[in-house]
Amino acid sequence: MTQYDVRPATEFESAQIKDLIHLVGINPSGLDWKRFLVAVDESGQVLGCGQIKPHGKDILELASIAVVPQFQGQGIARAIMERLLAQSPRPLYLMCIAHNGPMYEKFGFQTIEYKDMPKYFQRISKLFSVAKAVRRTEEDLLVMKLG
Ligand SMILES: CC(C)(COP(=O)(O)OP(=O)(O)OC[C@H]1O[C@@H](n2cnc3c(N)ncnc32)[C@H](O)[C@@H]1OP(=O)(O)O)[C@@H](O)C(=O)NCCC(=O)NCCS
Predict the structure, then answer these.
(1) Which long-range contacts (CB under 8 A, 24 or more apart) does 72-81 make?
(2) Per-residue pLDDT tens digits for 113-141
(3) From 19, 72, 124, mutation site for ligand 1 pocket: most ligand atoms within 8 A of C-beta
(4) What is the pTM of this model?
(5) From CA 8, how far away is CA 2, in angstroms rounded?
(6) Which segments of the chain belong to CATH 3.40.630.30?
(7) Could you tell me if 47 and 27 are in contact, meaning their C-beta atoms sit under 8 angstroms apart?
(8) Can you tell me which atom of ligand 1 is nearest the CA of 74?
(9) 78 Cα: distance to centroid of ligand 1 (angstroms)
(10) Which residue has the higher pLDDT, 51 or 1?
(11) pLDDT digits over 9-42, tens only?
(12) pLDDT tens digit string along 91-113?
């Protein structure tokens, strides 16, 4: 098993965080390193990351959960999420592609309906539906809530 520490990111790791988010192909906006936790190995490589992203005053989103492909399946995302969840107020929201829903259910998140979403997530959800129709992809976007 790979040895790593989970800790707050430093400015020095900002580029590695952005590279990882691009590598795994998830939302590349709002990547301020100051909000991030990172899993870092002995050589200083960022193996995984995640953040709690605020939208306005009241809405908090668990976001940017990513692990370098070679290091997936070793509990790194779990270690990052447990730390983030331990320090975050509730409720906490997230958005994910449907196939990742079961992972977040393990942490207590539940899918919510459009009418129960804060406005921010309703907007994204609508945009996604349009994009989905255009691209003809099958995967749905889930908005999930904890607490
Ligand atoms: C999703 C991702 C972050 C998981 O990282 P990981 O380090 O491999 O995950 P972990 O090994 O910590 O797994 C955590 C738990 O979730 C489970 N899990 C992981 N991916 C899952 C999936 N797609 N569906 C169901 N369960 C899943 C694991 O079995 C594990 O369960 P356990 O702790 O009860 O045994 C990683 O695959 C990744 O970076 N994917 C690409 C980016 C992405 O899709 N991010 C999510 C954006 S919403």
Answers:
(1) 74/1, 74/2, 76/2, 76/4, 76/39, 76/47, 76/48, 77/48, 77/50, 77/103, 79/4, 79/6, 79/39, 79/48, 80/6, 80/37, 80/38, 80/39, 80/48, 80/49, 80/50, 81/50, 81/107
(2) 999 999 999 999 999 888 877 776 678 99
(3) 72
(4) 0.96
(5) 19
(6) 1-89
(7) no
(8) 11
(9) 7
(10) 51
(11) 999 999 999 999 999 999 999 999 999 999 999 9
(12) 999 999 999 999 999 999 999 99
Q: How many helices (H) and strands (E) does the chain have?
A: 4, 7
Residue 74 C-alpha to ligand 1 middle, in angstroms?
Answer: 9
For ligand 1, the distance from its centroid to the CA atom of residue 97, given in whole angstroms, is 12
Q: Tell me how far apart the 2 most distant CA atoms of the chain are, in Å.
A: 47
- Report the separation in Å between the CA atom of 73 and the middle of ligand 1, taken as the mean of its atom positions: 7
Closest C-alpha among 100, 79, 89, 12 to residue 52: 89
Overall residue count recorded for the chain in this entry: 147
1-89 under CATH 3.40.630.30, yes or no: yes
Using CB distances shorter than 6 Å, the residues near ligand 1 are: 24, 26, 65-67, 72-78, 96, 99-100, 102-103, 106
| Residue position matching structure tokens 């992972």 | 103
